[in-house]
Amino acid sequence: MGEHPSPGPAVAACAEAERIEELEPEAEGRPPAAPEDFDPGNTGYISTGKFRSLLDSHSSNLDPHKREVLLALADSREDGQICYQDFVNLMSNKRSNSFRQAILQGNRRLSSKALLEEKGLSLSQRLIRHVAYETLPREIDRKWYYDSYTCCPPPWFMITVTLLEVAFFLYNGVSLGQFVLQVTHPRYLKNSLVYHPQLRAQAWRYLTYIFMHAGIEHLGLNVVLQLLVGVPLEMVHGATRIGLVYVAGVVAGSLAVSVADMTAPVVGSSGGVYALVSAHLANIVMNWSGMKCQFKMLRMAVALICMSMEFGRAVWLRFHPSAYPPCPHPSFVAHLGGVAVGITLGVVVLRNYEQRLQDQSLWWIFVAMYTIFVLFAVFWNIFAYTLLDLKLPPPP
């Protein structure tokens, strides 16, 4: 390890952050306090003017691309202040490797000019820019994403799930000879992918029910929402994070049905879809002034109308006279389980673009809440059905 001279307060900011980044990664959890000369009140914030003077004084010690990023960070602060922790996080490389490479190896620098003002972009570059404005609330994040996105890997998770759902639907449609309201066919529930309360011990059904849909009207809306919302979110946040939110919504949906609508089966991917869409809509509302997507009010209204229509269809079907009494038609409660996941875990994921989730206290709070719910639902499924002496419909 190299030797460092004892710096003054101003030099300490850059030198300590550089030391954290390049020499002592184990010290990332212990960032230095903001220098007293720049933060006499020890508030954790310094003015952007003083921050700029700090950068100008020590620009020779900084990579020029990093200096541009830090200046862009200062420009993005409308209140005239910058959090010193943001500066340390950036210098200590708390973003992803792709982001680091975009800073160090990118051919273009972040500038004060908005991304929308750039001309001469190719079709793929315009698509990436469009996705950035659809999903990210801060201009600096949009520029970071635009610089770093390589489409490698592509948004494979949502596309793969969608193709599987369509394939299973077509197979069932051919085998049953019915594509509209497949769920009314007497042999529909005999499929081994459907969640059925009598077969709740078969754990795979809590997840595989997403590959069965009530009909083409059910599949169509879910597929449209998955592609229009899920694919752009995956392009920005990655398959791991979006897949986590989606699967968490799916599992929460089936478990919610097993607790709140104990006699009903479950089909469809609405739990996962509603988790993604509700997280995205909540993120837009929480960052309303920063989101620059076009016609956002109209598009939110359309999304809410579509979700309401799908939810209304599910409620109507649940209480419609069943085609296989005494078993009712599939439950609508999975939609609500997905929404609950979206406005908790989903919002934390979407609000922390390329930040480590394990550093976010809200993430651990919602993970604990989700874990408690899953454990409660598991014990409920083991004991409550017997204790309540509930009369379940016969197995299909």
Q: What is the N-to-C order of secondary-structure elements (H for helix, E for strand)?
A: HEHHEHHHHHHHHHHH
Radius of gyration: 25 Å
What's the number of helices? 14
Q: How can the largest sheet be summarized?
A: 2 strands, antiparallel
Return the CATH topology of the domain at 156-388.
Rhomboid-like fold
CATH architecture of the domain at 156-388: Up-down Bundle
Report the uncertain regions. Answer: 1-34, 93-111
Overall geometry: elongated
Helix fraction bin: 55-70%
Q: What do we call the CATH homologous superfamily of the domain at 156-388?
A: Rhomboid-like
Mean pLDDT: 79
What share of the residues does DSSP label as strand, in percent? Answer: under 5%
Helical/strand content category: mainly alpha
- Gap between N and C termini, in Å? 68 Å
Q: Which assembly state applies to the chains in this document? A: single chain
